[in-house]
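Question: Hello, beginner here. Any chance you could explain the protein record under this note? Any guidance would be welcome.
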Amino acid sequence: MSSPLRRVSRLCLIGGMSVSVAAGPALADIPDNLTDLVYQSAEWGNEQLGSRGYTFITSDYHEGQSYEYWWNGSSKTCVQTRAAGGKYEAIRTTSSTDCNQYGSQSNKNDNAAAIALGAAALIGAVALAHKSHERDEKHGGDSQSVAEFDRGYRDGLYHQSYHNYQDTTAYSDGYNAGQRERDEETSHRPSNGRYSGYQQYVSVSDLAGARASSADSELRNRGFRDTGGYKQGSRSYVTWYNQRTRQCIQAVTQDGRIARFEDIDEGNCL
C-alpha cells in the first residue's frame, strides 16, 4: 500500500472535542504484532500495516528520514514508522493526536493542555502544529510541556515574535524547531526574495564570521537597528531592521562570532 509523500495540513480546529496530548513513557513501546516489520522494506511494511488494520494518516520527510503515522481504529493505536534507504528503521506507538485523533474523554492533563494551547481550545480542540518526531522526547512526557513546545513551534513557524512568558525550554526548543521547518518549506525562495520596492538591498554576508561586537557596529553603519533577541543554549539570536530598505534579518551568534544571517519577514522587526 503506497502512501502520499506530501504533508497534510497540521493546523485545524475540531469543534466539540477536548484535546488530549499527554504522552507517557509507555507510548514508546512497539505493538507486539508489528515487531517483525522493523528493518524490513518500507513498501512491504506499508502493505502489512494496511492488512493488519492500520490506516495511513500522514507523512513527513524530516532531516533525511521519512516519518509516517498510521491509525488502528479497533485498538485506538497510533504508530509512527521511521524509514531511511527504503527500510523501516523503527516503529513505535505514539500519541493519538499524531494521527489527528481527538477523543471525547477529558482529564486533568487534557484540560491543562487545552488552557495552555489557548482560548480556542475552550470551544473545541486545537490540533498540534507539529508531530512528535519534530520535538525531543524530553518535551513529550506531560501535556504542559507538549503545549508549550507547540506554542513556540507555531510562533517560529508563522514568523511571530519570540514570547516565552513561561520561561520554559519547551517553548524555546519549539520556536527553534518552527523556524527550521519554515526555512525548509521556503528554501525555494531566494535569500533576498522578501524585499521589494525602490531601495537597493543591503548585503551583510561579508560580516559572517566576524566578531559580534564589530558586526554590531557595522550593521548600524549600514542603516540597521537592533530590535531585540533571545539566547538559546550557546547561541544568541538578534533581529536587525533597516527601515530604508525594509530589510529584517536575524543574526545568529555563537562563541562571540556571527555564525550566520537569516532573512526573515519584516513583521518580526516591527
